[in-house]
Amino acid sequence: MRGRQVSPCLELCQMDSPQPILKVLVVDDSAVYRKQVGQTLAYHPSYETFLACNGEEALSIYREKVPSIVVTDWMMPDFSGIELCQRIRAEKGLPFAYVIMMTSNTDKAGPRKHWKRGADDYIAKPFDCSELLARVGASRRVVELHHELQSKNAKLEELARTDALTGLPNRQAIEEWADKQLMGSPIWMILGDLDGF
């Protein structure tokens, strides 16, 4: 009796070691491509996938769910994937998102246009599921490195504004705070002299 056939994509996913779950937003006005990308990523236990059929819906989901990876079609009915990418890049206070552009455009200048406008990678339609998984996997590594860099920068910034001996804000931190809080306001200053400190 022959065993059940296993999808090559599923085999690829099963070879990977367990990883933290990353949110992926898939944007395409074609229900077929949305389903294809969604199902390909659904095989992989370390991706939580959200689907959008146009740019406005994608922006709404992006702001609510804050995905780490966005896979978007280039041509959509309301605005293009490139415009979506630019709007994502303009969002303030949200962490970095890796953007993969999907396109059926075979123009060799296409990738250069995507990168100039903020996309990080592109994949041509129709695509092979193993190629999609490879590109999303590569984007995962970039996102993780970006998060690690942000965390280290935050720690360095904290160290630069903290006195090593007391753990209190240092002179630089106090001057920055004073510039923001006391601009144009009259202030009283008390000078204390601690002998033998």
What would you call the structural class? alpha/beta
How many distinct folded domains? Answer: 1
* Proportion in β-strands: 5-15%
Question: What would the average pLDDT be, to the nearest integer?
Answer: 81
What is the CATH superfamily classification?
Response regulator
From the 3D structure, determine the CATH topology: Rossmann fold
- Name the shape in a single word: elongated
Strand order of the largest sheet: 2-1-3-4-5
What is the element string, with H for helices and E for strands?
Answer: HEHEHEHEHEHH
Distance between the termini: 85 Å
Radius of gyration based on Cα positions: 24 Å
Keyphrases for this structure?
single chain; 197 residues; alpha/beta; Rossmann fold; five-stranded parallel beta sheet; 7 helices; 14% strand; elongated
Describe, in plain words, how this protein is organized in 3D.
The chain has 7 helices and 5 strands; from the N terminus they run αβαβαβαβαβαα. With 197 residues, the chain is an alpha/beta fold. It has one domain (8-154): Response regulator (Rossmann fold, 3-Layer(aba) Sandwich). It has a 5-stranded parallel sheet with strand order 2-1-3-4-5, sandwiched between helices. α3 (55-65) packs parallel to α4. The protein starts with 7 loop residues before the first helix and ends in a 16-residue tail after the last helix.
Short description:
The protein is α/β, with parallel strands linked by helices. It has helices at residues 8-15, 31-42, 55-65, 81-90, 110-116, 129-160, 171-181; strands at 22-27, 47-52, 69-73, 98-103, 121-124.
